[in-house]
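Deviation from plan, reported transparently: copper (II) ion complex.
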Amino acid sequence: MTGRKALIALTGAAAVAAAPALAVAATSTKAKTRTVSVNDNYYGPKTLTVHTGDTIKWHWSEDESDVHDVALKTAPKGVKKFASDPLAAGDDFKRKLTTPGRYKIICTFHEEDMSMTITVKKRP
Ligand SMILES: [Cu+2]
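Because the crystal trials were delayed, the predicted structure below was used instead.
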């Protein structure tokens, strides 16, 4: 919503001088998709900080021969647990995170080695 307002403001001739600053603000508040690679046996990166409304896309690396999944082990209060199917090379699993807090993700096949933490902060 903020991004759209900034774009509308840019259409005004008076805003031209302020355009570079507004463009930066619009970019930093827009929801993004962040990619996490699923490998043998780790997620990359292992820790990730995003903002509310961002989408995480787990991508199973093309050279990955084993099966893995993405399961929410612990989450902020009120967040419903989710889990992907067991997936393999080339597959994707996406989830939009809308509640601030810490999310611990595990692979249920390799829980001891394979976990990651996502910190979701309120969008500025
Ligand atoms: Cu695994």
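The pocket of copper (II) ion is lined by residues 41, 68, 107, 109-110, 114 (CB under 6 Å). We consider this an acceptable substitute for the interim report.
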